[in-house]
Design goal:
With 165 residues, the protein is of the alpha+beta class. The chain has one domain. It is built from seven helices and seven strands, in the order βαααββββαββααα. The protein has a seven-stranded antiparallel sheet. β4 and β5 form a beta hairpin. α6 crosses α7. The longest helix has 17 residues. The radius of gyration is 17 Å and the shape is globular.
């Protein structure tokens, strides 16, 4: 992942409801790591690969168990497989230039596959272009794109404060 990209995980809504009784606003990072989100027969529609390929070209991954659509350093959807079944699904947005068509296609894909988005800060987000766009526009990746020097200087300053505390 590049500093100018922001990643969302896609999570099946049904699995959240099964575990929590409803779709929570946030998930603890430890809980997220311990759950097999795509187990119990929860999987994507049979044509999910064709659907992704309709708006992002597939490309060869570094692993046979990872399928990718888009561009590694740009907008990309990545599916991690185990025995041919999806075990993890994520999307990275390139904030150097937000592709509105890609954003809307990803949201439509999530809706059609009954998924929600998990942000980098572990918040659950419904599949809404406006909500995703607001998250993207307030992200560190966006701050970097707007002013790389200032962003890196702030990171360095914060690192120094942490080391002196």
């Amino acid at each position: 992942m590049a500093i100018w990209q922001y990643t969302f995980e896609l999570i099946p809504r049904a699995k959240l409801i099964k575990l929590f009784g409803d779709v929570p606003q946030t998930i603890d990072a430890d809980d997220y790591e311990q759950v097999e989100w795509w187990s119990d027969g929860t999987n994507l529609t049979a044509d999910f690969e064709n659907r992704l390929a309709s708006f992002a070209a597939s490309y060869k991954s570094w692993s046979a168990d990872v399928k990718c659509w888009g561009a590694e350093d740009g907008n990309v959807v990545q599916a991690i497989l185990d025995g041919g079944r999806v075990v993890e699904l994520s999307v990275r947005f390139d904030l150097r230039k937000l592709d509105e068509a890609f954003l809307h296609n990803v949201v439509g894909f999530a809706r059609d596959n009954e998924c929600v988005f998990l942000t980098e800060s572990m918040k659950i987000t419904e599949p809404s272009a406006d909500v995703l766009k607001a998250t993207l526009m307030s992200s560190n990746a966006r701050r970097f794109v707007e002013d790389p020097r200032r962003y890196l200087e702030e990171l360095n300053k914060n690192r120094q404060v942490l080391h002196t505390a």
